Amino acid sequence: MMSMRFFRKICFVATLLLFALPMVAATIDGGGKIEKKVWQDSDPSKENYFNNRRALVGPGCTINSIGDGVKVVSGTANLQNLCNDDLDDYATIPALANVTVVGNPIISVKDNQHCYAGGTEAGFVICAKSEASILTLDLAKFYKIQFLKDGKAVGELQKISTGNTVTGLGLSLLTILGSDQVNKLYMATAPGNFDEIKLVQCGVDVQLGTAINIKYAFVGKAREYTITNNKENGIAKYAQEQGRKNITLDCDGVSHLVSKKENVIDEDLTNSFDINALNLVLVQLGSRPIKVIAKPSDNQEAFPANTEVGFKYASSALLNLKLGDGIRLTFFNKEGTEIGHKVISTTVLGLGLIKKSTEAELVMKAPWDFSAVKMSVEGLNAGLTGTNKVYYAFVRMAPDAASHHCPINATSSRDVSGSVNQFQLQHNDTVQVKWSIVDRPTGSNVELNTETGLVSNLDIPGKYVFKATVLKDEGRSEKCYEETTLNYAPKYVAEEHGVNILVNKEGEEPKYMLSDKFGGGLIQIFDRMMNCSAILTTSLNDFAYREPGVEVAANKGLVGIKTADGSNFADGLNGNARAFNGKMKVGFVVSAKATGLDADVLKLYNIKLYNKGKEVTGDVTTHWDAISAGLIGKEETRKMCLNVEVPAGSVFDEIVLYNTDVLSADLSQLNIYYAYVADADADNATINPVYGAQVVSTDNTNASIDFANTQMVQVANIGNGYNELSNLIDDSMDTYLTLPLGVDLGGSTISVNMGKVVDKGQQLVMVTQNLALGLGASLGEGLKLTTYLDDEKQEELTSWKVLGADVIGSKGDSYAVLNPTKSFDQVRITPVKALSALENLQIKGFALRTDMNDDGTINGDDLLVLDEDKTLAVTKSYTGAKMLLHRTFTKSADNNKKGWNSIILPVDMTAAQVKEAFGEGVQMAEFDRLDNNWIKFSTVNVAADGVVLHKNTPYIIYPTKEPLGNYSYTIDGVTKILDGHVYVANGINYDDQTSNLTHTVNGGGMTYTGSYSNPTTVSADSYMFSKGDLIHTIKSHDVKAYRCWLKEDMHTGKMLMFSINGNGIDGTTGIHVIEENKQNTNTGIYNLGGVCMNTNNVDKLPKGVYVVNNKVVVKK
């Protein structure tokens, strides 16, 4: 299974308070840093031993600081080269002209995944052109190294040296074949455990030039071997430690009695081979070359590419060589064929010479696999006099990368709605991968296209784990891979996480009831609150609200809830077996307009607790906490909760939300959704705003700082402006990067590679420390975030939703949330405007969170909204969606019960879905025909199998279920509210029906028409349903969407009557046909021919059918 880390943090109430929990992994204990193992290279018998130098490159390493944090040095270039996998490119760091006595930091590199033991060597590889004056300097006079661990200095500044090699000499310059650059290593020994090294400039010299080039930082000793038969460090040791079979040695050169060529490969490292030219007999011109040959028995080349190979030699005449001469190294493969050569200049050779002993070493990096190397002095009759000899050849293994990971960028783990059965896994197109299934729920028949990553037939809720493995990962025994976990059809059960939602479950005896008129004591419940019963229903999207335009006097209870049997709320109600034994948080989830809602307004509301009618007093602390990332509609209504922290052992059976002062009529509306009791000490969504969210970090998602697109500018008076960059991508939300805001930043940008492809539907959360913007401020005014996918710009996002931990006190962390609408794998943060509230903004990191509804279902893709106030415009397809139907059904004018209403829907519905939406006793009928004077409908069997309500078919319906008074929902990160009657059904399928918004049924000279348009104009002389009756119109009318009407194909002038299954006129339908606007003029009694009777008493008339007060009645 994929290793995922999540953070836990004690703070105030959560986003998507009680339900928004992605189910992809466990939570890290404590929420701090995960302690890294300490690696050492001094004792192979001890744990965490590494046997070769490590280059601090790869996704686990990053530049952690640039400059001194106060002044960013201008002129830095190619910073991305410092920690990438290419050890031959470099970053340019300007030298400082003004240096303090204590030194000025230049740059630091941190290993985010490993820690190293004190006593370990570490340093930087500097490169320059061979003629550069910087190579002649003793940089130890000008630079020192500072070791750090977790951002804190380890010991004092350490002097740098060139170190020692297998030759016993100081490290020489390394020549790069095919380049005019040479490398020089500078290192120091760590005084204690460390995970970061910093280069510090401590002096100034004109020969330092304007800049230095740094290839990479490193830790540990290089693994070195002599190409000799020496038992301690020779070829046998090389073969053993590198996992090779036996390798034998040979050499090629011209021996003489005094100097034998075999001296360069024997066990003795002190003897040598004389390379002076023959002066007596011109057997050869120039120096005597020497070739060292390794013969592997495994049919592979002896030494891999990028191995550094060199010779230890002594020369008293080297500096007498002519300009342009030097020493040539020629490389051969195992067949003896030359594969390349390079001349090391006399300049470089001179710099590597130890003047007192005339001993030196020359080193070159081989770009090929090779098995033999020859050393020869360039120049005709080179004039080598005095001592000129070669001791032996040696190899130094290329450093290992401290971390390696192919940029697969697989889809980040996430929750997937149960409304879909397919999911497209994504990855970086430049990396070829093969997908495979690692794990699936028992019994699942899920299918996977291993090439495209298309997942099909998602069927059983649970965790599905998929692996993307790189097809080509050269030179590595284990190929890179990434895993993606899809948590299909998740459901968050609040009670399992220490939270009781105080609602009555359908089909069970009510456990809660609304507080009565006088509340729990002297406080009186305000009687102008609307839809109060909504807070007791399992629909957590419906709400109670104050009647608009009404003022509320001080100390009025707005709404209250109490246990039906008087039991203690803390005793574990609503089916939860566990009681609250410790501290509790008791509160209401509400929403209010964000703009203009300051702390003084929030203080107008509070909560009282009662037991048996008496107020429960004690040490209770009140908090207003932001809980929802979304804004509701154009008015930017924000979900929050008002809660009180209740001491352990408190007993209370009633909770009342009240106002502490006068609520003026024009004060922002407060919508109240539901009440809850939560365990204040448990780690759950009520106390942790990002509980269950996935931290974007090196370990979790392979995140890294993208320095190629990070732009640094000089910033004054920012104490740690560009220090601790790695805090953006570590596992901890206790560390932070201070982003210099509130000043002229001139295009400063910090770019973060997410390491994963983040899909639409996942929210990006930026965790900041104490972001005191207030509810009305806009973070987007000062900070822009741009997303990219495969380096292509996706979208600019400024609509941050700031979730204050405590929006009055602003004492804890804040959570700025964005809802991207396009997939991305990189984000770039750019200040766009100076805001005083954003000065020195401390960013702790990023997290990914699934966008969930309050009821634990996933937002967005599975929500089909049909609103009578809007013309149908939904073009996408849905499978198994939740349908929200906003449709106002009128009541019967006679008995105030639900009457018959017209309806047409663009979806098919089964009997179960019809009953779910409109009630168990729902009735439906469909148009049959016009038969003589009768408009005939026939009932639909709503208990039948299969579809009972067909899409695009006009019906009449008699609903029995009370609709939700309101419904809040979130799509694409924006929370909206359906005001008015809302009916809900699940498992709905839908395909685009917008091409035809009007549908008809014909029969017997009459047409029944339904429309999805708002408004739709219905012409005069039509028959429309209203208040349970059928109105014959005398003028045109505009109607809302999802309504139907009847009209004769040819006007007959007849008085029509209505029947269902033959029942009409005082039958069971209760539907009368009424002439519009004739109630006041037609006061008499008429027969169907329109003749006025001579009496107003029906009892005095003979049997027949008459029109009385515009209604058809039958005299029997």
Automatic annotation (TrEMBL):
<feature type="signal peptide">
    <location>
        <begin position="1"/>
        <end position="25"/>
    </location>
</feature>
<protein>
    <submittedName>
        <fullName>Uncharacterized protein</fullName>
    </submittedName>
</protein>
<keyword id="KW-0732">Signal</keyword>
<dbReference type="InterPro" id="IPR018247">
    <property type="entry name" value="EF_Hand_1_Ca_BS"/>
</dbReference>
